[in-house]
TrEMBL record:
<keyword id="KW-0547">Nucleotide-binding</keyword>
<dbReference type="InterPro" id="IPR036426">
    <property type="entry name" value="Bulb-type_lectin_dom_sf"/>
</dbReference>
<dbReference type="Pfam" id="PF01453">
    <property type="entry name" value="B_lectin"/>
</dbReference>
<dbReference type="InterPro" id="IPR000719">
    <property type="entry name" value="Prot_kinase_dom"/>
</dbReference>
<keyword id="KW-1003">Cell membrane</keyword>
<keyword id="KW-0808">Transferase</keyword>
<dbReference type="GO" id="GO:0048544">
    <property type="term" value="P:recognition of pollen"/>
</dbReference>
<dbReference type="Pfam" id="PF07714">
    <property type="entry name" value="PK_Tyr_Ser-Thr"/>
</dbReference>
<comment type="similarity">
    <text>Belongs to the protein kinase superfamily. Ser/Thr protein kinase family.</text>
</comment>
<keyword id="KW-1015">Disulfide bond</keyword>
<dbReference type="GO" id="GO:0005524">
    <property type="term" value="F:ATP binding"/>
</dbReference>
<keyword id="KW-0812">Transmembrane</keyword>
<feature type="domain" description="Protein kinase">
    <location>
        <begin position="495"/>
        <end position="773"/>
    </location>
</feature>
<dbReference type="Pfam" id="PF08276">
    <property type="entry name" value="PAN_2"/>
</dbReference>
<keyword id="KW-0325">Glycoprotein</keyword>
<keyword id="KW-0418">Kinase</keyword>
<feature type="domain" description="Apple">
    <location>
        <begin position="343"/>
        <end position="426"/>
    </location>
</feature>
Length: 813
């Protein structure tokens, strides 16, 4: 025993000596090993390599983390898919010069695989967090001299100075893969890497499906990636040559820690910044950033405009491929040319300039870096498969040339210097104003002619109908009044601009006055021409059966000469958003009124979800969809038409995102999974907006969190929820009641749908003032905006400049 003990001491001493003789804690030599319990520390003490348990997991892994960050921040894991079960494994350099991880029984758990050989290999942890195997004598920092480096095999974190890209010589493509979970570093299915196309761009995948695309990176700033924009924290570098393609960032101030991390739980790529004073990693940026960042959300030749409603539009000169699908906000099919494009025929072949876009998917592109834009155009004209061209690098004089040979996918309008020239029928191009004028003239002539014709037709049809006496039709007619076009034209003063109330999700809405003096609202459906008249009528009739005092009442409909219109009761007080977000109007809404509105919305939604015969998910509940009648009673509008969900289909998936930025539930925005609980989430947002008088999407609190939900949660945790209440309400509201409402709102905003109450419970909770409410957990706030590191740190100089940048980026959206 004593001999054994003595031997142990001697070995340990020798080990120590070997380290001392080297004078470094950042190196493992061939005669060394690194056992569980000891660590390597980079020379400047920024990074540490050793054995760790992630979260509360009993498994042990070898990893690299920030030494001086008190929150465990593992930036690289060696044996992520092959955990160690005990504390007796060691890291050594084997005879082949590889770094290997052996367990107690000397069996292999993990190994590097170097192809380059050296007689005296050592392992070193560098100051930038790169773990390298190099020759003992060759101390150059050039990566070509490394036999192996961990930077080539990243896990989920892109560190400063680490390349995200492709080494064409070695064939190494660096792929970032998220941890499965916060306590499980094994490979998730959320990955990111550079795309191997002629036009360098980065992308994120969920499984094998493309999830997000940055847009081509050439030209300093990318055409679509916020990460690539000039920012006060990082310097960006893009290299694209014969040997390698990569993008890399370095920190402007090395004492500020900042990393890019993929997060499987949130399905986000986040830029985090360490805030030493508050000891947290703060979010600076998230990708995808908004609904328009979802890959190809508007389909081929569609463009996503984040501020529009709905967000998808066709490029000029294109129309929806399937008008019916498009009208139900299913944009996957995208758009097709309106004109008669003919390849190579001068009068029918041209280009339309689309300005300020994220350039389309580069999967099938051709690039020449030296060509001029004019030559680029000619080159595109010569090939009938060419669909668009653009300069390769707008910052250079010659500009270069990129050609696209496939359908143009994943376009979004974004503040950027990039222009795209889209090929189309030349007759679609030219002075648009002239065209519109002629068009208006033509249309008005045609419309008046049509009206006359229709009137005659209608009269004769009515006569015939009376003779035929079709039972079914009569039944419909009894159920829901039919308005003929002439009546509506007259009531709305021929759809005059003065009568226009606004533009809804499905088309413009006009105010009208019938001959008997009744006021109506007419919604002129824009894209539903693909749907047959009969289907449309059936759908309207279904909707008209939904009758509740908190739903807008449908008075009738009209289908004639390709027009489809819905006639609603007119709401003299317009929509809720014109009250709560308006400085002056909001003063008119006292607490009893607001509570009444809230309760009414809840009742209306409950009716849609449960009490009506059709179980309907609204899918686009928001302040502008709540109309107010003369007595300020709320009425939900725009229900039912988006998609009918009859019977059991209360949960369904859709591959397209419908709905409005700021109100969407996380599971809906990410997986397209919608249920009545997604409406409950939107109700929660609406509730917070109504009580705080602030919009969820535009609000950014620089002092702390980001959007309204995050802010409410923070105040809740601080037991200070009352400061969320609108100042205009302070005099009239019963604090206890308002706080209770906010708590209900937070419950509606829970991240997981199962944790949200259904509308029955919401109505019960709103109704009773005594029952104790459940305590909310942290809500889901997917589309939180860029979070400022602002006041959270005391570095005001940096923070104010960061704020400026985030502000301008936000403004652009
Ligand atoms: C392994 O080491 C860790 C940290 O040193 C310690 O918390 C844990 O209890 C050890 N486990 C065993 C089985 O010895
Ligand atoms: C090591 O070997 C022993 C006996 O040979 C075995 O019981 C044990 O499971 C092995 N441990 C590991 C981690 O493989
Ligand atoms: C080792 O190299 C092979 C082929 O060169 C490759 O397929 C494998 O993924 C590499 N393994 C690791 C852990 O890098
Ligand atoms: C993702 O982010 C959330 C919120 O910051 C965090 O709780 C979670 O641990 C992260 N997940 C992973 C896998 O890192
Ligand atoms: C870098 O940041 C540190 C602290 O985070 C600060 O003290 C220092 O002044 C900064 N350096 C520069 C050049 O801004
Ligand atoms: C398209 O071309 C066909 C045949 O060339 C022609 O009949 C038709 O009128 C054209 N349509 C338009 C909209 O120009
Ligand atoms: C582009 O021009 C540069 C400088 O004139 C030249 O070195 C390079 O070879 C050219 N590249 C191609 C692809 O023609
Ligand atoms: C047009 O471009 C496509 C894609 O690069 C190519 O396959 C085809 O050969 C080209 N056609 C002509 C006529 O150059």
């Amino acid at each position: 025993m004593t001999i054994f003990h003595a031997m142990l001491v001697v070995t340990e001493f020798l080990l120590l000596l070997s380290k001392l003789s080297y004078g470094a804690d950042d190196i493992i030599t061939q005669s060394d090993s690194l056992s569980d319990g000891s660590t390597l520390i980079s020379k400047d003490e920024t990074f540490e390599l050793g054995f760790f348990n992630p979260g509360s997991s009993p498994n042990r892994y070898v990893g690299i983390w920030y030494k001086n960050v008190p929150v465990q921040t593992v930036v690289w894991v060696a044996n992520r898919d092959n955990p160690i079960r005990d504390n007796s494994s060691t890291l050594i350099i084997n005879k082949q010069g590889n770094l290997v991880l052996l367990n107690r029984n000397q069996s292999l758990l993990w190994s590097t695989n170097t192809t380059k050989k050296s007689s005296t290999p050592i392992v070193q942890l560098l100051n930038n967090g790169n773990l390298v195997i190099r020759d003992e004598k060759d101390s150059s920092a050039d990566e070509d001299s490394f036999l192996w480096q961990s930077f080539d095999y990243p896990t989920d974190t892109l560190l400063p100075e680490m390349k995200n890209g492709w080494d064409k010589k070695t064939g190494i493509l660096r792929i970032f893969t998220a941890w499965k979970n916060w306590d499980d570093p094994s490979s998730g299915d959320f990955t990111a890497s550079m795309r191997l196309t002629n036009n360098p761009e980065t992308a994120i995948w969920k499984g094998s499906t493309e999830f997000y695309r940055s847009g081509p990176l050439t030209g300093g700033t990318s055409s679509g990636a916020y990460e690539m924009k000039v920012n006060p924290l990082t310097n960006l570098e893009l290299v694209n040559n014969e040997e390698q393609v990569y993008y890399m960032y370095t920190l402007k101030n090395k004492s500020v820690f900042s990393i890019l991390v993929l997060n499987q739980t949130l399905l986000l790529l986040q830029r985090l910044i360490w805030i030493p004073d508050s000891r947290v990693w703060s979010n600076y940026l998230k990708l995808p950033h908004d609904a328009c960042d979802a890959y190809n959300v508007c389909g081929p030749y569609g463009k996503c405009v984040i501020d529009a409603s709905p967000i998808c539009q066709c490029l000029d000169g294109f129309k929806p491929k399937s008008a019916q699908q498009w009208s139900t906000m299913n944009w996957a099919d995208g758009c097709v040319r309106t004109g008669n494009w003919s390849c190579g025929i001068k009068s029918r072949d041209g280009f339309l300039k689309v300005t300020g876009v994220k350039l389309p998917d580069t999967a099938n592109t051709w690039v020449d870096v030296n060509m001029t834009l004019d030559d680029c155009k000619l080159k595109c004209l010569q090939n009938c498969s060419c669909t668009a061209y653009s300069s390769f690098d707008p910052n250079k004089d010659s500009g270069g040339c990129s050609l696209w040979f496939n359908d143009l996918k994943d376009l979004r309008v974004i503040e950027s210097s990039r222009n795209l020239y889209v090929r189309m029928d030349a007759s679609n191009i030219g002075d648009k104003h002239e065209h519109t004028k002629t068009a208006i003239l033509l249309v008005s002539i045609i419309v008046s002619a049509v009206i006359v014709m229709l009137l005659t037709l209608y009269i004769s049809r009515k006569k015939r109908k009376n003779r035929e006496n079709n039972n079914e039709d009569e039944h419909y007619d009894l159920d829901l009044p039919y308005f003929d076009l002439a009546t509506i034209v007259k009531a709305t003063n021929n759809f005059s601009e003065d009568n226009k109330l606004g533009e809804g999700g499905f088309g413009p809405v006009y105010k009208g006055k019938l001959q008997d003096g009744q006021e109506i609202a007419v919604k002129r459906l824009s894209w539903s021409s693909g749907q047959g008249s009969k289907e449309f009528r059936n759908e309207v009739i279904l909707c008209s059966k939904l009758q509740h005092r908190n739903l807008v009442k449908i008075l009738g409909y009209c289908v004639e000469s390709g027009e489809k219109m819905l006639v609603y009761e007119y709401m003299s007080n317009k929509s809720l958003d014109s009250f709560i977000f308006d400085q002056i109007q909001s003063k008119l809404l006292d607490w009893p009124m607001r509570f009444n509105i809230l309760y009414g919305i809840a009742r209306g939604l409950l009716y849609l979800h449960q009490d009506s015969r059709l179980r309907i998910i609204h899918r686009d509940l928001k302040a502008s969809n709540i109309l107010l009648d003369r007595d300020m009673n709320p009425k939900i509008s725009d229900f039912g038409l988006a998609k009918m969900c009859v019977g059991d289909q209360i949960e369904a998936t859709t591959n397209q995102i419908v709905g409005t930025y700021g109100y969407m539930a996380p599971e809906y925005a990410i997986d397209g999974l919608f249920s009545v609980k997604s409406d409950v989430f939107s109700f929660g947002v609406l509730l917070l907006e109504l009580i705080s008088g602030k919009k969820n999407r535009t609000l950014t609190y620089y002092q702390d969190d980001h959007n309204l939900i995050g802010h409410a949660w923070k105040l809740w945790k601080e037991d200070n929820i009352q400061s969320l209440i609108d100042d205009n309400l302070k005099d009239t509201c019963i604090l206890y009641e308002a706080s209770r409402c906010i708590q209900i709102g937070l419950l509606c905003l829970q991240h997981h749908p199962d944790n949200r109450p259904n509308m029955t419970s919401v109505v019960v909770m709103l109704n009773s003032n005594n029952n104790t409410l459940p305590l909310p957990h942290e809500p889901g706030y997917l589309y939180t905006e860029i979070r400022s590191i602002g006041e959270a740190s005391s570095k005001r100089q940096i923070s104010s400049s960061i704020n400026n940048v985030t502000m301008s980026q936000l403004d652009a959206r």
